[in-house]
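**Reference record**
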Amino acid sequence: MPELGKPQNTIDIIKKYDFRFRKKFGQNFLIDTNVLGKIADSACIDPGDCVLEIGPGIGTLTQYLAERARQVVAVEIDPELIPILSETLAGFPNAEVIHADIMKTDIRELAEKYNGGKPLNVVANLPYYITTPIIMSLLEDGAPVKSITVMIQKEVAERMQAGPGGKEYGALSLAVQYYCDTEIVANVPPNCFIPRPNVGSCVIRLNRYAEPPVRVKDPEKMFKIIRAAFNQRRKTLANAVSHGGISGGNVGAEGNSAGTSGGTVGRERVTEVLREMGLSETIRGEAMTLDQFAEFSDRL
């Protein structure tokens, strides 16, 4: 099969199957061999690895991955692409295509079936409309994944790497940085795709930590606090958390004098904890580090 990274070969396949791009799937096919090689190389695939590719499209990146990995499992949601993939990947017996929605797919089951239960390398050119849900699902659900190398919207990549104080910094920044070390591998302009997107793109690699960089007693509670803090960025942390329905943990009814009501944390308790930490009572979530959110959560 001709190399699909070359624009004319991609155009020929699209014409042959009379394929129509569908906006609901956010389809943009890569047509730059340099970028494709960069993605495949930055995924650091060993010959014995099993790669999970999300949204293979017509198989452009899949070809590069199959040349490097022992096994590629490509999950594609669009039924119109399945017969195309049967042709474009015919020369790669180590590439398995599964017609499914990745958000409804059991990653553990795939790892067990294709990789003996060992963690998978995830590689993808992700649809921009569902980038964050897919990445957070992979991280939060405890899926057996050791690295994630993905093409995403440049703005989202910048948010993942952002630090306190900037407008890009938010719940996504903290969540990704809790689970992974991040590295932007390449910036990719719109002319590297068919059709051209309206925004710039980035290839970013997320290396999953064996242990999170901060210790927190209850990560789920910490992320509830983080989401509350950024749901309304202009609110102070005290107002955001006290109105966010955050549980007071072991405070219970006896803690009402400390500012709780019905088991939820009240403003008085939040400001008390901020004072204990040496922080301003008017601090906003965007000014707090991951370490500070962890300590704040534990103290509550």
Notes: The domain at 7-208 is CATH 3.40.50.150 (Rossmann fold). Residues 250-262 have pLDDT under 50 and may be disordered. The first helix runs from residue 7 to 16. Residues 170 and 230 are 6 Å apart (CA to CA).
